[in-house]
UniProtKB/TrEMBL annotation:
Domain AMP-binding enzyme C-terminal positions: 401-477
NCBIfam families for the chain: PRK07787.1
A Pfam family: AMP-binding
CDD domains the UniProt entry points to: MCS (cd05941)
Transmembrane spans: none
Family, per entry: Belongs to the ATP-dependent AMP-binding enzyme family.
InterPro entries: AMP-bd_C (IPR025110), AMP-binding_CS (IPR020845), AMP-dep_synth/lig_dom (IPR000873)
Protein name as it appears in the record: Acyl-CoA synthetase
Organism: Streptomyces poriferorum
Domain AMP-dependent synthetase/ligase: 15-349
PROSITE patterns on file: AMP_BINDING
């Protein structure tokens, strides 16, 4: 089966069906196929292409074109700082960058050939693009670890198809569904689930461009059947539902949706209950990672149980292990999640050491997430094995790279970064700083701007705390568990 079967035949019944909508830009399946195939013919044979992944129809055309041409695409976050972006470009070595004509690209991309992506629909050529092998790489998605620069997870076509088909089974996802979301298009949640998911099913996606409660109410109230979001978005919806003047239409729209799905981090139970009380509709959660795509999910016909992410999806093996890697004798106790199945990535690009460290000899992926298993197989995630991965606003943020950026500031002598609970973001980034000059420490705003410029805005510290010295053990390692507000 092709990865995107509805785009293969311009004469199929689905050809006139709306595929994607971004504000005033709407493309049917026939129009998307024609625009993508025109671009695919221009990039065919390339080793890799980068996609300047703005929340636009042009990004969809670019990614679909790469998939049609069998060329791995590297989605780039437009908010990424120069240092991080330069690393990604050097590591992935794309031949070309695909962008909208109006995009102003940063200097880190100046050495790449640029192709402007158009949503204007040309006459569809008779170009044939053979379907690549299921093991062929489809995307290289960069993910931040706890130390060092981001790693490129190579995602094969097999993994994308397996995850999306498992979600079809779990969520009874069909071509009649209309998905609404406002997720970024440079990572798994927004791009693979939120764009390729509907396209694989022959359904529709309406992207809000920028998240707002008003946009959600408008699109769900005019035919949307599913909503994807991160906890920060659902928290803001819960806040909007508390406003009597604006809550009526939103509550009705949410209540009318077939599925409300939250992912990328745990949705607080308080927000679960607020939404359920106002709408009569429960949010369901799922659990995935860049390297594994989707692992578990609450089924459409299952029990939406706050605090859990459902049972393993079809085709996914999941186990909990002790520190030494042996399976837990008691699944009700806490262990590290390991997963195995067709949903797994192939490797970290150019990092055989990191790939080997992430996988066991018999193919289990070490997630680093700690969890318990309910008696009926529901997974309840309790936190990270390490203390250095922060989940904020739907992003997974590595503390180590923020610490390195802070240490580049001349006013910082020592720095540590932790996460703390935040009612809106899930967790906020907290910087613990020993200033070079205690009498004139750099301001919190100055440090936040410095990190945003070096890395990405969502990685900036929201709180800065100043110390005379960081707590360290005898080996000089910072004891982060001793840091608290």
């Amino acid at each position: 089966m092709p990865l995107l079967p509805a785009l293969q035949d311009a004469s199929a019944p689905a050809a006139a069906h709306e595929a994607v909508r971004f504000d005033e830009v709407s493309l049917t399946y026939a129009q998307l196929a024609a625009a993508a195939d025109s671009l695919a013919a221009r990039i065919a044979g390339a080793d890799r292409v980068a996609v300047w992944a703005t929340p636009t129809a042009q990004t969809v055309v670019a990614v679909v074109a790469a998939l049609r041409a069998g060329v791995p695409a590297v989605p780039l976050n437009p908010k990424t700082g120069e240092q991080e972006l330069a690393h990604i470009v050097a590591d992935s070595a794309p031949a070309t960058v695909l962008a909208s004509a109006s995009d102003v690209l940063p200097p880190a991309l100046a050495g790449l050939r640029r192709l402007d992506v158009s949503v204007a629909v040309p006459a569809r050529a008779d170009t044939e693009f053979p379907e690549p092998s299921p093991e062929a790489p489809a995307l290289v998605v960069y993910t931040s670890g706890t130390t060092g620069p981001p790693k490129g997870a190579v995602l094969p076509r097999r993994a994308i198809a397996a995850s999306l088909d498992a979600l079809e089974d779990a969520w009874q996802w069909t071509g009649d569904d209309v998905l609404v979301h406002a997720l970024p298009l440079f990572h798994v949640h927004g791009l693979i689930l939120g764009i390729l998911g509907p396209l694989r099913r022959g359904g529709s996606v309406r992207h809000l461009g920028r998240f707002s409660a008003e946009g959600v109410a408008r699109e769900l109230g005019s035919g949307g059947t599913m909503l994807f979001g991160v906890p920060t978005m659902y928290h803001r919806l819960a806040e909007a539902l508390d406003e009597p003047a604006a809550s009526g239409g939103l509550a009705k729209a949410l209540a009318g949706a077939r599925l409300l799905v939250s992912g990328s981090a745990a949705l607080p139970v308080h927000d679960h209950e607020r939404i359920a009380a106002a709408t009569g509709r429960r949010v369901i959660e799922r659990y995935g990672m860049t390297e594994t795509l989707m692992n578990t999910g609450v089924r459409a016909d299952g029990e939406p149980r706050p605090g859990t992410v459902g049972a393993p999806l079809r085709g996914v093996e999941l186990r909990l292990v002790e520190e030494d890697g042996t399976p837990l004798a008691d699944p009700a106790s806490i262990g590290e999640i390991q997963v195995r199945g067709p949903n797994l990535f192939t490797e970290y690009l150019n990092r055989p050491d990191a790939t080997a460290a992430a996988l066991t000899a018999d193919g289990w992926f070490r997630t680093g997430d700690m969890a318990t298993l309910d008696q009926d197989g529901y997974v309840r995630i309790v936190g990270r094995k390490a203390t250095d991965l922060i989940k904020s606003g739907g992003y997974k943020i590595g503390a180590g790279e923020i610490e390195n950026a802070l240490l580049d500031h001349p006013g910082v002598r020592e720095a540590a970064v932790t996460g703390e609970p935040d009612p809106d973001l899930g967790e906020r980034v907290v910087a613990w700083v020993v200033p070079a000059d205690p009498a004139a420490p750099p301001s919190a705003a100055e440090l936040a701007d410095h990190v945003a410029a070096q890395l990405s805005p969502h990685k900036r510290p929201r709180t800065v705390r100043y110390l005379d010295a960081l707590p360290r053990n005898d080996l000089g390692k910072i004891m982060k568990r001793s840091l608290h507000g």
